[in-house]
Amino acid sequence: MANIGIVITVCGAALCAILAGIGSAVGVMAAGKASAGVTSENPDLFGKVLVLQALPGTQGIYGFLIAILIMVRVGLLGGNVANLTAAQGWQFFFAALPMAVVGLISGICQGKAAVAAIHMTGKQPDASGKGITMTALVETYAILALLASILLMFGITI
Fold first, then answer.
1. Cβ neighbour number for residue 75 with a 10 Å cutoff
2. pTM to 2 decimals?
3. Can you give the pLDDT at residue 145?
């Protein structure tokens, strides 16, 4: 029979990777649509808008990182699998939630900021640096969620 604590932990890790990945996919897709419009008008702006399109992709990376760290922490990758209680499983599940939820929301919001910055770059190519800065500010909250999930995960006694 499967260890219920491990099952709950894996569900939390998977949810983190999935939700943060969805946020990034939606954000990158929105920015990609805007980038396509701008580069169809001015192909020379491809490099500038590509950076803006890539920025919302980081949340998916962070969610994947938390999922991997959780699986390493409980021994599912490269170690002896811990015998977790249901309570410990729920602790890992909830440790993944900050990155899961904030990754979903901030990926989408960063995509919206990137769309605005891409349109600004299309009208004023020299303003792309300002657009990157505005878009990167949303990243702050994804990084805070990443840190919160890491601290919560390593605060759990196995």
1. 15
2. 0.93
3. 98
